[in-house]
Model the fold of this input.
Amino acid sequence: MVVFMKRVMRLSVYLVAAAIAASALSLGVFAESGASLNRKTLNMPLGKSFTLKVSNAGGNTVSWSSSDKSIATVNSNGRVTALKKGNVRIGAKVGDSILVCRIRVIEPTAPASKPPVSSDETAESYGEEMLKLINAERKKEEASPLSLDETLCKAANIRAEEIARSFSHQRPDGKEFKTVLTEVGIETSLHIGENISAGSSTAKDTFERWMKSPGHKRNILTADYKKVGIGYYYDSGGKYKYYWVQIFSG
Done:
């Protein structure tokens, strides 16, 4: 009887441990070391791939798994590939903890096109127009003119598309806007500012709206800034359709 009871107790412990592990995969537990995934949730178009990354793993090996390999697979480097529509959890085992990204695989959509304002109206021409408006106002304040920076423009265009999904200075994944600079190879230690706007179809109207807001105007006229990137995105199905971003750096 004693031997039998010990075996039952052992089995109960194993079942509890298994339940805890299963619940960790379901809820997405963060490792005590502070490890975290670059995305907690993600919408992935069918047939596309995305690389999940673990930061602060503390030297631990990361093991990847998919709750349903028929919907999405993940390789040893965290590269996720969407195979069919549905919901799936991608787990990253770090030490004794499991980080989870919940992914919804959706039908791919056609890329949003810019409105037919004129045949040569492009994001680049919007940028040049906005730059002229900025420097005209800075000249009135005896501030040095800004230069249009190609890499900052790349970051601003990423942000313009992001604010169509989540109109905020936080990115859709919850991180600060300035993390986009790391993605394009810019040091985040620089003096950085961001203006965002939505709903206006022209650079002039958007700029005038910014100049009526003390915080946005301060960014535009700050003497410490030397460069600017201009981002523009049009989404015919979006709430505001027209999305604008300025990113300033010293």
Observations:
- Residues 1-33, 111-121 have pLDDT under 50 and may be disordered.
- The chain is about 35% helix and 25% strand.
- Residues 35 and 81 are 23 Å apart (CA to CA).
- Residues 2-27 form the longest helix (26 residues).
